[in-house]
Amino acid sequence: MNIYDISQKAGVSTATVSRVLNQSTKVTEKTRNKVLAAIEECGYTPNAFARGLGLNTMKTVGIMCADSSDPYFARAIYFLGEALRKSGYDVILSCTGFDQDMRERQMSLLLNKRVDSVILIGSNYTSDTDENNRYITDAAKSIPVMMINGNINASNVYCIASDDRTAVFDVTSQLISSGRNRPLYIYNSRSYGGIQKLRGFRDALKNNRIKADESNELFIGFRRSGGEIFPVKEIKKSIEDHFAKYGSFDCIIAAEDIIAVGALKFASSNGITVPDKLAVAGYNNFELCECCEPELTSVDNHLELLCDKCVSLLMEVFSGESIPKQTVFSCNIIERATTDLKERPRL
Amino acid sequence: MNIYDISQKAGVSTATVSRVLNQSTKVTEKTRNKVLAAIEECGYTPNAFARGLGLNTMKTVGIMCADSSDPYFARAIYFLGEALRKSGYDVILSCTGFDQDMRERQMSLLLNKRVDSVILIGSNYTSDTDENNRYITDAAKSIPVMMINGNINASNVYCIASDDRTAVFDVTSQLISSGRNRPLYIYNSRSYGGIQKLRGFRDALKNNRIKADESNELFIGFRRSGGEIFPVKEIKKSIEDHFAKYGSFDCIIAAEDIIAVGALKFASSNGITVPDKLAVAGYNNFELCECCEPELTSVDNHLELLCDKCVSLLMEVFSGESIPKQTVFSCNIIERATTDLKERPRL
Predict the structure, then answer these.
(1) Between A and B, how many CB-CB pairs are < 8 A?
(2) Are residues B33 and B153 in the same domain?
């Protein structure tokens, strides 16, 4: 869209559009409103349009996440924001929830603001279908798109991720090596990252010749959203139901720390000692791990490192350098009081 | 600043500035760069300048907070963002830390982006001195400034707060009424809100003829910042030191939930039963309260309500309506397993 299209739409000359953009006193209020309406009808804010006319970069990056009140996303927003600010960029924040419509709408709003890039936080932005990913690959035609923990193979889309599959494989393998043989994996997301973690769990079972079936896996439907409090009590109840149906287990690997906290609540209210009778490991290694009782073994996925790397790669893209399409970091297991990983056959 | 000032600074005619803003092909690259440099020298982005020329609102609100990874601020950002989006406004997020310089710089960046308003989250933006508050009162000369839990008395500044002083008074009074007489207040912030809470504690002691001195108050230096993990273990140690110095206490009121979690860690590692020997109450009532052991009694300060009200008041300001300078909401005590508030003489 250019100044000519706007003039056509408004039924005025291009000179008149210029005058409106320059607040010339020679334009009547009626004409001015017609031009502004035409700009907005084209889906642009007048401001974004002015920039589209060739003014400099806005030095602004859009950040999209499902829910900024989720501790993982909140920390990512913080780390990205700090790194961007140090590079001279401001942040426009956009929370999309998990609906496809809202994601597409928010992406389009960010593009209309003429951001220099969009960073998508969370593997939930990676869809199974090309159609659902199209708003991302389309956006990448005009600006670089960075994905934290995403995985979309398209031109001008760059993914920075932690190796969650290997991390869950490792923590499960270590629990088995330390003498556990009835593991239970609990998860609440079937996003791309959620599936990777589940695969890591299944790989470890297969590798240790433990049968993997529905008795080893518990999917719980609760998900953080809308700033609501995560229903820890409900997790406890789900585990009790699973226990009643499939019998006991001697270790729990949880896809998120707060799910592991639910497992600890299950243990304490059923008189099961941790880690003697039940070992528990979480994922994310945020401050919750040191708040629960006993303190929780967890996987550190180096979120700050991911965010810093994401921004430094973006700055390289801005300077015209080639960067890898995918950058993957290993995770570490941080052992605390809920496990007893005596043997460590894997390094 | 107007188009004339820019033309003077760049040493070109106003018509040339117009041409640059309209990307006319009649301008040489050299001239174009001179004009853009002049605009930026004046502290404006070219974009913000274009808007300053009389284009419509950007429909964007700036949100400032110390640290978006703090759970309280993260939730506030989420609730404000949702409410603003429903009203058709986007969010530019700005994390300032606790330094005066950075606060002033970020405010100025937001103003240069021509946001329609700035919302400041957290009482740490309320300073003792007019001089330190000047960047806020100055900003309010051009746009309405909203403060969540702030308290600055100036034209076009609107404060929406929870009544933290009364809430701490109430929870302390209820603990005393339930038979406790050696209370300890633990806090880590001397911000405006931090002082209000401390006053509520002292009021309750005075009201119950309990001597208030340094033995009843423990200030700990740890503060959330930089996305770091809060040092729960250090809190535990500070309480042990205080205990060794001043003797025992039978209830702890904490200014934040995670401090109360540190108190629970202190109790469990010293064989002190909760709530029998030690009652513990926190503040904020977020999901941590249901993750610790035993579950934590806390004060619900209705953050979502505050945020929704803040945005609806802002929309009223935008429509030219008069709104109260100060809007204060009561808090509620949510009792869980760490207290035993049998008697409830206050309603």
Answers:
(1) 178
(2) no
Return the higher-pLDDT residue of A164 and A36: A164
Domain residue limits at B18: 3-52
Residues B262 and B179 in one domain: yes
Q: Please list every residue in chain A whose beta carbon sits closer than 8 Å to the beta carbon of residue B292.
A: 291-293
pLDDT classification of A340: cutoffs 50, 70, 90: very high
Please, which contacts does B19-22 make with residues 24 or more away whose CB atoms are closer than 8 Å?
B21/A21, B21/A22, B21/A50, B21/A53, B21/A55, B21/B46, B21/B50, B21/B53, B22/A3, B22/A17, B22/A18, B22/A21, B22/A22, B22/A53
Does one domain contain both B275 and B198? yes
Tally of domains in chain A: 3
So what's the ipTM on this one? 0.78
**Across the interface, which of A85, A226, A292 has its CB nearest the CB of B291?**
A292
Cβ–Cβ below 8 Å for A291 and B286 = no
Which residue among B18, B67, B292 sits closest to A291, beta carbon to beta carbon?
B292
Distance from CA of B120 to the nearest CA of A (A): 16
CATH code, domain carrying B125: 3.40.50.2300
Tell me the shortest Cα–Cα distance from B312 to chain A, in angstroms. Answer: 18
* Model confidence pTM above 0.90: no
Residues of A in Cβ contact (< 8 Å) with B291:
232, 258, 261, 288, 291-292
Q: How far apart are the C-alpha atoms of A17 and B254, rounded to whole Å?
A: 60
Q: Based on the domain organization, do A174 and A284 belong to the same domain?
A: yes
